[in-house]
Design goal:
The protein is an all-alpha fold. It has one domain. Helix content is about 70%, strand content about 0%. The chain contains three helices and no strands. The chain starts with a helix and ends in a 12-residue tail after the last helix.
Length: about 100
């Protein structure tokens, strides 16, 4: 594989990974909009959604993406605790990133 093709493939993979995190946050934000959750949490999700939408995958390192994925997983775990305590059900039923 040529270096240019390798770079393009890595960029596409990074874009998909970043998009997956963004879509997860969007889904959580949408789901939580109808729940009895503190307004600060909704505002922080809105800020996070806005922030991630400006990332450029081609400029992110592998470590950057791992940090974003780890942070997304951490967010899901913390929100799951809130949902459990408030008896709102499960925030998601699948695997983390």
């Amino acid at each position: 594989m040529k270096p240019q093709q390798t770079f393009k493939l890595k960029t596409e993979q990074r874009h998909l990974r970043l998009q997956n995190c963004l879509l997860t946050i969007l889904e959580v934000h949408e789901f939580m909009g109808g729940q009895a959750i503190h307004l600060d949490i909704i505002q922080q999700l809105e800020y996070l959604k806005e922030l991630i939408s400006h990332f450029q995958p081609e400029l992110l390192s592998e470590r950057d993406l791992e940090n974003i994925e780890d942070s997304t997983n951490h967010l899901l775990k913390e929100l799951a605790k809130i949902f459990h305590l408030k008896k709102l059900g499960m925030i998601h039923s699948g695997y983390y990133h």
